Amino acid sequence: MMLVSIGPEIIPLVIFAVSFALEPRKFRTGLYLLGALAWLAAIVLGWTLAAATTVDDQLGGWWLLGLVVVGGLTLIGLALFMIVAGITLVRREGLRPTRLLSMALGLLVLGYLGWLAAAIVSENVAQVMWAIWVGLPLSYFGFGFTAFVIYGAAYPAWMVRFGPAADAVVVLGSGLIGGAVPPLLADRLRAGRRVYAHAVTSGRHPLLITSGGQGPDEPVAEAVAMRDFLADDGLEASSILVEDRSRNTSENLAFSAELLRARQVTGPVAVVTSDFHALRAALLMRAAGIKGYTVGARTARYFWPTAVIREYAAVLRDHFWLNAVMVALTCIPLVLTTVQAVMNRVG
Length: 347
What we know:
Shape: globular
Distance between the termini: 72 Å
Number of domains: 2
Structural class: alpha/beta
Strand order of the largest sheet: 3-2-1-4-5
Number of strands: 5
Number of helices: 12
Strand content: 5-15%
Helix content: 55-70%
């Protein structure tokens, strides 16, 4: 029998694959994915650098410089995209503090890169060290955010293609405007209708639940307006269950789970929401004890960055103490350097 040896270069990928197979609805699975991708990228870059150095030592140096330049330009491009998207969001939907998140993050990235570049160009070693220490907690948040973005796109895309036919479809509400279903919620309902139709053609007899309570400025509960939207779209209203008590995603899932248990539905459940919300909804779905997966409806490009930032902030809040400890650890060099600087001035 031939034994296949696993090289160390694919071990991170194996870790991700095992974690995904056991339970894809964990944020750490996304961290494993990013770690595996970063590890493989480092290996490929190492191979190319070694090849370039073999040809010419100076070529290897230029190769490294090119990587730094490309990385910096990529970060600048992403920061500019977030700023432009934030401006577009404010212009189209009005000024609110939460709609400034994308712009604020883009400006923060540009400001930090500008500070680091100025310190390097001026050969100011002290400023370079300060920038590095400040960059440690920023890198912690940046790594997590990158993992959230990548896995948040990969997970629902995988489930749309390979997820099992559902025994129930739950469409999460997102708020009404003037008592009517707005475009973002309409996209969720259309996506839910497609998942429902796929289950029917696969031989299932799925339930469809619209989930959303009534806000203080809404004439009817979201779930009722969602049911009426689907009925107007040709789906029989009698085949739709209404969950009209919830006020947030956790309650959406908890109250929908009660309806599922009452009807003895234990099979896979497809929870339909917006693409930016799909990963966090999957995490909450797991916490609610619902077996299944989430599917994301497409969102307007200008709205997506701010929405993803809010979702990532919510995930950080949901794991507050873990993140507080990790940030405290990454801030140790910055704190020690600050204390040393103060002592030197006093002395």
